[in-house]
Amino acid sequence: MVTGMDGKVTIRPYRASDEASVVDLWSRAAKLAHPFIEREGEGARARKLREVYLVVADNWVAEISGAVVGLLGLLEAEIGGLFVAPEAQGRGVGRALVEHAETLHGEVTLEVFENNTRARRFYDLMGFVERGRRTDEETGHILISLLRPAAGATERMTVTAH
Questions:
Q1: Rounded to the nearest 5°, which phi and psi values hold at 127?
Q2: How far is it, in rounded angstroms, from Cα 54 to Cα 41?
Q3: Which residues of the chain have pLDDT under 50?
Q4: 102 vs 117: CA distance, rounded Å
Q5: What integer pLDDT is reported at residue 153 of this predicted model?
Q6: Domains of the chain by residue range
Q7: Rounded to an integer, what distance in angstroms lies between the CA atom of residue 135 and that of residue 114?
Q8: For 149, which DSSP code?
Q9: How far is CA 136 from CA 44, 68, 129, in A?
Q10: Cα–Cα distances in angstroms (integers) from residue 21 to residues 17, 50, 71, 77, 99, in the given order
Q11: Domain 3-161: what homologous superfamily?
């Protein structure tokens, strides 16, 4: 289990009662991660989080000492959103959420903005590899498609081939 200064990271399913905490942490984290997107973390984008993503995705939260500090939104094996409260970044919360997604689905994919250099470094360290690029229709910014192979995937393929 990953630990932070205030205790261990616990991952559990999102509950409707988490909405205010999750929207707040998402807003603060999104503004920090995407300063290049106008009105990021507020307005229509926050409404879309509440009305679409928190309803449609398989959402998980990370807690430290009972405080919600992370959000993982899964669309099957795609990480549709991964946000960690700014004060909890660098404490293993993002790693724990990615590993949770891998535990549920094995190989996972996601898209990250090209200009989000901090997240790109994190995903590189987590073993994600680039699969392609596209322009995001909503923002006009470049998104990079990434893949994290399931742990042990190459070993399983080798064993299966024999």
A1: 90, 15
A2: 15
A3: 1-6, 154-162
A4: 23
A5: 55
A6: 3-161
A7: 10
A8: P
A9: 16, 29, 19
A10: 9, 12, 10, 25, 22
A11: Gcn5-related N-acetyltransferase (GNAT) (3.40.630.30)
